[in-house]
Design goal:
With about 120 residues, the chain is mostly helical. About 50% of the residues lie in helices and about 5% in strands. The structure holds zinc ion.
């Protein structure tokens, strides 16, 4: 049964040891599956904010926004031989694409600013 415990101890499933019987149980359980004792609630702090360099996600998202804006305006203005299945009103193309581009630019700059601030 070593294989099973190794799988349970893997990173994919969060487990912990029961303080009463010492068996490995799932972290989400409020009650031990083996001895039926109530497990103390000791959730570890989530490490979603830590680890990654700050601002990196913002930069990536910003670039994605700008790319989407470029593609959007390219198609909406009829510059491409392909036609969209839906008709885009000119006012949408005139206002939404630059808006999308600017918000993407802002996000990127914000990300760069965060990165600069944390690195220096
Ligand atoms: Zn137990």
């Amino acid at each position: 049964m070593k294989w099973t415990s190794d799988v349970l101890r893997g990173n994919s499933v969060a487990t912990r040891e029961c303080p009463y019987c010492g068996k490995t149980v799932f972290d989400q359980l409020k009650q031990c599956a083996y001895c039926r004792e109530t497990l103390p609630d000791m959730r570890r702090p989530k490490s979603t904010s830590g680890g990654r360099p700050a601002g990196k996600d913002d930069i990536r998202r910003g670039l994605l926004f700008m790319l989407a804006a470029a593609i959007f305006s390219y198609f909406a203005r009829g510059s491409s031989p392909l036609t969209l299945p839906v008709q885009v009103p000119p006012i949408v193309a005139d206002y939404l694409a630059p808006l999308l581009f600017l918000s993407g630019l802002g996000l990127s700059l914000h990300g760069l600013y965060l990165r600069h601030r944390t690195s220096s």
